Amino acid sequence: MPNNEMLKIIEKKRIELIKIVQKNGINSKISIKFSQELDNLLTEYIKQDLQNKKTLN
């Protein structure tokens, strides 16, 4: 997946997480679930970015 597309998905998930936390609290199960999903997206983005940088070198 291209980096710019991945960044759009990450930003959408971040906005969703903020809304969920505001509605349900930071320690709610749904907030934790969305936070973990965002973490996974960020981890994947970083891995792809590192791989792209290695390919360029």
TrEMBL record:
Gene3D superfamilies this protein is in?
Helix-loop-helix DNA-binding domain
Protein name stated in the entry: Spo0E like sporulation regulatory protein
**A UniProt-annotated Pfam family:** SpoOE-like
SUPFAM superfamilies per the UniProt record, alphabetical:
BAS1536-like
